[in-house]
Amino acid sequence: MSLFALIRWPVLAMSAALIFAGPQKIAAAETLTIAQGNDILSLDPANHGNNSTESALVNIYDYLVDKDFSQGQLRFTPRLALSWSSDDNIHWTLKLRDDVYWHNGDKFTAQDVKFTIERSQQDKKLISSGKFRRIKAVEAPDDTTLRIETDGPDTLLLHAFVGNGAGILPKAAFEKAGKDEFFKQPVGTGPYVFKQWVKSDRVVLAKNPRWWGGTPKWDGVVIRSIPETTTRVAELLTGGVDIAVNVPPEDIARLNDNKGTRAITFDIARNLALHVRTGKDRVTGDPRVREAIDLAIDRNAIVQQVLEGHGGATRGFFPPAIPGFAPELSRDIRFDPERAKALLREAGYSDRKRPAIKISTPSGRYVKDREIVEAVAGYLEDAGFRAQVEVLDWTVYNNKVVGDGFGELYLWGMGSYTDASTLFVDNFKRHYDWSDESFEKLAASVRQAKSETDRIAISQQGQQIVAEQRVRIGLLFPQSIYGVSDRIVYKGRFDEMIAAEDVSRP
Amino acid sequence: MSGRSPLKALLQFVPVLYIVSLIVFMLVYLTGDPSALLIPEDASEEDRLVLVAAWGLDRPWYVQYLRYMGNILTGDFGVSYRYGTDALPVVLERIPATLTLTAGGLIVAILIALPTGIFAALRRNSMPDFAISAVTILGKAMPNFWVGIMLILVFGVWLRLVPVSGSGSFAHLILPALTLGTGFAAELTKLIRSSLLEVMGQDYIRTARAKGVPEILVILRHGLRNALIPALTMTSLHAIALLGGALVTETVFSWPGLGQLVVQAVYTKDMAVIQIAVFVITIMALTINLTTDALYRLIDPRLRH
Q: Distance (Å, rounded) from C-alpha A496 to C-alpha A249?
C-alpha cells in the first residue's frame, strides 16, 4: 500500500476544510471591530472594577458628565447632565437632559440617577459600592432636576460621576426584571444597544436609532477579547479588527510598514513608580540610601531604550492632564550617579559592603514592566548597590501588596485616576512604614478642601513631600500604543476608554 | 480496566469530588482573598475592606467552608467574584467550546497518526519510516504556542484562508484543532507504529497470511485491531487533559474554552468558578474513562467477560 493511498482521504478532507472555510470575512464596512486584551467581566457598570470592561460599557450606558482630556487637561463636559452648580460644594443641583430615552423606549428621568446612586450605596457586595460614598442624600424633585447633598465640602463630586461604577441604570426596567435578568439584556441610554456577549470571545452592539446625541457613527460595534498580543496584531494586519489595543513598541514599524494599518501612540492616565519600604530594619530606612536610589536611575535612558521613546521621564506620580499635576517633578529629572555613590559612602557603605536591595516587579502587567525594573537594577548596581530583581505572577504580586510582603522596592503602576488627590488614598504607614506629620495634615485637609484650587495645592504639596522623602520614586509616564486600520480615524483617549463615537471614517 | 459497573464507578466519585473540593478550597483560601485583584485601581483600602466583609471573606476558613458546602447541598454553587453572577452558568457555557476543540484536536491527530503510523510500521527501517520518525520528533518538540502562531501567520496572515482567531464557525476551529492535533499526532504515530510492529510479529498474523487473507485485511482486521488498545488508552488520557483546558492553544486563538476560564479563575481566586470547573472536568474525565472501557470491550471480546 502506498503512502498516498493511506493518507489520501485525510489530506483531501483537510484540504477541503481549508477551501470551504473560504477566505476570511473582512468585517462589514459599517461595523467597528475593537480587539481588547481582556474579556469584559460584567454588564453591570457598578460591579467590575476593570478598565477593559468599562471601555466596552461606555458605549451602552451614559455617565452624567464626560471626561474631556482633549485640551491636555481634564474638563468635565455635559452628558446626561446639562449643567451643575453648588454654592458651598455641599449642596448640588444638576439639570438633566429632557430628550433622553432608554433602549427599551422609556424616558430617562432624575429618578433613574437617584436609583443608580442609591443602589450602589446599598449593595455592599458591588465592587464599586464605595463610588458614591460621600453622597449623603439625593433627591429628584422633578424629572430633570437632581439635588445632591454631600457629607462635607466635596470638590471631587463630579469625579464620582465618571469611570467605573458611574454608568446610569434605568430604575423601572431594572426593578421589573430583577438584577440577574436585567443584565442578561441590559438597557442603557448610550449610542449602542447591547445584542450579545459570548464570554471570552466578543461583545456585540448595534446602533441605537433613538440616541439623544444623533445618529451613531457605526451600524454595529464588536468588541473582541484577544489576550495574545501576536494574535491581536495578526487580526489587525488581516483586517479582522480595526483597533488592536496595547501593541508592544517593537511592532510599531511592522504596523506602519504594512499597507492599511498604522500604530498610534498617546498619553494615558498611568504612572510607573518604585514604592519604597522605609522601615528602620531595611537599608532603605536611611534617607541617604533612598536618595541614592533616586539619583542613580537614568530615567530618560530607560524611556528611550526600553520604551523606544513612548513615554515621559518623571519623578512625579500624576501626568500633566490630571488636576493636581506637579510640574516641577517632571522638569527636575535628577540623574547624578556620582552623588548617589557619595551618598552611599556617607551612609557607611563601600565596594566591599554594598547595600542589598530587592526590587519586585510583575511581568506583562504594565508595558515593559520587567525590562524597566531590570534596567533600574542595572543602574543601582552601577551606583554601588547589590540589586536583586524578583519577578512575580500578578496574583502573587497583588497578595504581596495587600500583605506588605515585598523587600525594599517594588514597581507599581497606578492608573485610571482623574485627580492627584488619589495620592492620599494610600495607607503610607502600612505599605511603606512611613509617616510624616505635615503629610498627614494635608491628607486630613484634602477631603474638606473648600475649592478646586485649594485641593490642587494640597495635592501638589503632598506629592512634593512623597518625592523628596523618596517614599515613592517616580520613574515615568508610559504612553499607550494601539494598532489601527487605515479605514478609521482614531487618536486614542487619555483614559483608555474606546467609545465608538470617538472613531470615525477617513 | 474492565468489570466495573458504570453506577459503581459513579458512586466512587462522590468521595473523590468531596476530597477534591476540600483541597481546592484550602488551596484557594491559603492564597488570600481576591478583593485586591478586583477593586478599581483608585479605590481605597477602606473600600476593599467593605467588600471583604460583604462577601464574608473576613470570616474564619471553617465558617466559609461550611457555608460553601451548605450552599452546594442546596444546589447553590455560589457567585463568581469575578463575574458577579451565578458561577454555574459561567462554567457550563464554556463546555461546548471545550468539547468542540477537544474533538477537533483528536480527529486531526487520528486522521494523521493512523495512516502514517501504519505506513511507518509496514515500511519499517525504510527512508519514509526514518522521515516519519524525524517529523514526529519535530512535531513533539514544537511547543503549541509556536505552532499556533506559525499557523496564524501562514494560513491567516499570508494565505488568508482561515480566520486568525475567535470562534463561532467551522473555519474558526481549523487552526486551533490543527495546533492541538499535530502535537498529539506525533506521539500517537509513534505508538501506533511500535504497537503494530509488535503485533505483526505474532503467530496469528502469520496464520492469517498463510490462509491467504489479503494483506490489507490482515493489517486492518488482525493487526490494527490488536494494536489499537494502547493507542486508545493514550487517546483517552489525552482527551482528559484537553478537557481540563488547552490553555495555550485557547489563549493563542482566543478560543472561549474552559482552560482560559480556569486559569483566570485561579488568578483572581474565584473560588466558586474553580470548584465548579473542577467538578465538571472530573465528571467529564469519568465519562471518558467509562467510554474508553466500553471501547476496550468492543475491540477486544476477551474483556467482555
A: 17
